Amino acid sequence: MKYGFVRVGAAVPKLKVADCRYNSREIIKMIKKGEEEKIKILLFPELSITSYTCGDLFYQNALIKDAFLCLNKILDETKELDIISILGIPVLKDNQLFNCAVVIQKGKILGVVPKTYIPNYSEFYEWRYFSSSKNSIWDTVDILGQEVPFGADLLFEEEKNKELCFGIEICEDLWSVVPPSCFQAMHGATVLFNLSASNEIIGKYEYRRELVKQQSARCIAAYVYSSSGVGESTTDLVFGGHCIISEYGTILSQSERFVEDQMIYSEIDLLKLVNYRTRNTSYMEYGYLKDMKFRKIQFKLNNIEADDITRDIEPHPFVPCDLGARAKRCSDVFKIQIAALAKRMKHTKRDKAVIGISGGLDSTLAFLVTAKTFDHLKIPRKNIIAVTMPGFGTTEETYQNSLELIKSLDATLKDIDIKPACLQHFKDIGHDVNTHDITYENVQSRERTQILMDIANKEGGLVIGTGDMSELALGWCTYNGDHMSMYSVNCGVPKTLVAFLLRWAADNVLDERVKDVLLRILNTPISPELLPPDDKGKIKQKTEEVIGPYELHDFFLYHMIRYGAAPSKILFLAKKAFSDKYREDEIKKWLLFFLKRFFTHQFKRSSMPDGPKVGTVSLSPRGDWRMPSDAQVNSWIDELNNE
């Protein structure tokens, strides 16, 4: 598979109780509609051919016979279709009736999976009719003249694309202490299907939704769920027709309830799931399951890959779209940073900190974290030595913002002009002050770091690093300059999240005088301010004009590190995520830039100072990311160029 996306769906057709002919006609309509929508595997509810609420009618031969006549009709009507359908039907085998899922494609039955856990409590009394798969001693069953695989030990695998392997469980199986899908996933199933008949009572909707999310996360899988709809009997219960498609703990699509005749679908990212499983040691330690065998049933799908994906691709994966979730994320990150710095202060028995304040986003966030850490430790904020160090590129606006920020947070201000020291250094090394090259810029950065380190030695404090994770990914920091500190509180925070953290802090943890200057800082262009301002005294050196948009780089970083996505797939995803903002050639240009810098500047990450991991992506050489500093980028560039 090129990108790894396959489209799956869940359907709730119109239904009449014990009317197999009506139900089969509606199922056929849904299957044909699914084929039109390019769905590759379509799931139906539990006992969808007969209906779930037949009660003692399950004892009637007429119902069971008609169910199979109608199944034959479904097979005949869909024999030209590529789509795989998973239907619910009662199956009689040697004096036992099983509640089953039957998997069909192109007029053939691929296999039959019986339900394992049979509920017999509260409103459920399935033991009255159905036997558990545990009571089955047969490997096959004769259905409509076909001898087909039968059992709860079946997995279904695409013959050429092994990443698409699915398992099936039925309703109560998911509610059990250890659902069968756990073992299916451990044996290779990346997609899990559940035919269900879950009735509606107050609070059950939320519980059911979280159960599906949790199981997809636990199994590092996709979980597709379809429950019986409003056509079921309302003698004692009401069914809502709840469909869910979840991938690794995220809901991709979900249906409305109490609506007849509906279908949802989305694309599952199989390569993402497989990649994440390969790095998860839980999938390496299941030798204890060696006696549990699964039979794999091969099938073939045409044009399996979905290249017109409908699922949302979040352009800012580090920043939740939902405002409530975003506020919670910001609060958690802030608390993690504070807890981390507090531990380091206590461990080193220090009660002073030294931090450089530039008037930019990163140093402002690190300063706020430091101030709140000192509050937490009950250390006076005057013990924070905040140093502003104007250089050749410092504008009056950022300089004044720095001074005001330091004063508003009641820290100790040190204002040190670095220009004389830098001019002397230029003279010492024989550098022309009018040559504004990398030496010109880095001399300023290293001079600032030297000042901070020396003040820390003099005062007995810790230098607090301000650089963020996005800068580390690109190597956009001066080695042994702003790259270095005694503890780096922002090293796990991507640039796209920094501004949201500051806005959250302005609204939630700061007083008005701090909030005013913070809002001005938020409106300042991102810049290292190492080159002289323009004729109007404004910032001339704008970072994103040089290295590209941080929102693109954070997107690249997330998908490359979190899920091991190949460059061509990252480009594919970015085109969809930023379709209304960047052209394909622009995205590809900055992706190539990102790849080259990411590989070239690993040496900076290999020697980065300690700092807390705050999210799912971290570049710490002692934690998540261990990469040789001399690794070659050629394979990644070739993969992208040959896309």
Automatic annotation (TrEMBL):
Tell me which residues bind deamido-NAD(+). N442, E471, W476, C477, T478, Y479, K604
Residue sites binding ATP per the record: G356, I357, S358, G359, G360, L361, D362, S363, T466
SUPFAM superfamilies on file = Adenine nucleotide alpha hydrolases-like (SSF52402), Carbon-nitrogen hydrolase (SSF56317)
Q: Give a yes or no for keyword tRNA-binding in this entry.
A: no
Single Gene Ontology BP annotation: NAD+ biosynthetic process
- Which E.C. number(s) belong to this protein? 6.3.5.1
Mention any one GO cellular component term assigned to this protein in its UniProt record. Answer: cytoplasm
InterPro entries noted in UniProt: C-N_Hydrolase (IPR003010), C-N_Hydrolase_sf (IPR036526), Gln-dep_NAD_synthase (IPR014445), NAD+_synth_C (IPR041856), NAD/GMP_synthase (IPR022310), NAD_synthase (IPR003694), Rossmann-like_a/b/a_fold (IPR014729)
Q: Which GO terms describe its molecular function?
A: ATP binding; glutaminase activity; NAD+ synthase (glutamine-hydrolyzing) activity; NAD+ synthase activity
Q: Which reaction does it catalyse?
A: deamido-NAD(+) + L-glutamine + ATP + H2O = L-glutamate + AMP + diphosphate + NAD(+) + H(+)
Amino-acid biosynthesis as a keyword of this entry, yes or no, is no
Keywords carried by this UniProt record: ATP-binding, Ligase, NAD, Nucleotide-binding
Pfam families, from UniProt?
A: CN_hydrolase, NAD_synthase
What are the catalytic residues? E46, K115, C171
Pathway membership, UniProt? Cofactor biosynthesis; NAD(+) biosynthesis; NAD(+) from deamido-NAD(+) (L-Gln route): step 1/1
Look at the named UniProt entry and state the broad enzyme category this protein falls under.
ligase
- The entry marks the following residues as binding L-glutamine, namely Y121, S198, K204
The protein's superkingdom reads Bacteria
| Signal peptide range in chain numbering | none
* Domain CN hydrolase residues, every copy: 6-270
Q: What does this protein do?
A: Catalyzes the ATP-dependent amidation of deamido-NAD to form NAD. Uses L-glutamine as a nitrogen source.
| Similarity remark | In the C-terminal section; belongs to the NAD synthetase family. Belongs to the NAD synthetase family.
PANTHER family per the UniProt record, alphabetical = GLUTAMINE-DEPENDENT NAD(+) SYNTHETASE (PTHR23090:SF9), NH 3 /GLUTAMINE-DEPENDENT NAD + SYNTHETASE (PTHR23090)
Please state what the protein is called.
Glutamine-dependent NAD(+) synthetase
Organism (species): Acetivibrio saccincola
Q: Which gene encodes it?
A: nadE
